[in-house]
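Field notebook, page 253. I keep forgetting to write these up properly, so this time I am using the form the group agreed on. The chain and the ligand, ribulose-5-phosphate, are recorded exactly as supplied. Prediction of the bound pose follows.
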Amino acid sequence: NPGKSFYSSISRHVDETIKSESSGTSLTVVLLFSLQQNNQVVGVGSGSTIVYAVDRLAERVRQEKLNIVCVPTSFQARQLILKHGLSLSDLDRHPELDVAIDGADEVDASLTLIKGGGGCLTQEKIVAGCAKHFIVIADYRKDSKALGQQWKKGVPVEVIPIAYVPVSRAIARRFGGEAVLRMAVSKAGPVVTDNSNFILDWKFEHAQNWKEVNTAIKMIPGVVETGLFVGMAERVYFGMEDGSVKIRDPPVN
Ligand SMILES: O=C(CO)[C@H](O)[C@H](O)COP(=O)(O)O
């Protein structure tokens, strides 16, 4: 547990509400700003929600002359960091992060996440795994009791290209459903990740023990990483439709 001062400091900084347009729906994204101190190493997530967090981060760095170092989780995050003139680093130089902030595609009641809608799951998981605190920001559409209730596109699985067919068959055979190669939109052929791999979207049929499934899928030869983040998020901030913030912490066992 990071302690009371960490959390009270976070809530002090949940200080800005921004309207954004996403999927044609007007929604309110409430920003978390979890940097409570100077000289922090921050993991910067990927996707559309995180853009607002980085805007805010950059504003504070400028206003308060904070000395912050950012580690990106994707090409997109790297561009975002550079665009704002923030200090860019990597895991070679900063293998330990103070906090990583990222979005999610779906969050269940136990804070298990589906990530990788933007195809950046592997680097996102690595960076989150290197952070002392992993914080998620999401809008109310990502809030679920059980995975699959809100997010219908399945669990992304990054695979080595030559293995996509055997991995897809192995996942369907062992866990049911269908694991489909993600196709690019403005390019012929499949989506190619920042790591030059392919993505399978596993459309599962029913709720499972996600911890076990995550481990089992990772053991299939050719699998690089899954978009199941189990036991990693320490707190999720949901921006609600009415502009309020809902906070979810992991259940106490
Ligand atoms: O996992 C991700 C990218 O790989 C994103 O964090 C996730 O897809 C959420 O994105 P958005 O904020 O655009 O809804």
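OBSERVATIONS:
- The radius of gyration is 18 Å.
- The mean pLDDT is 85.
FOLLOW-UP: compare against the apo run.
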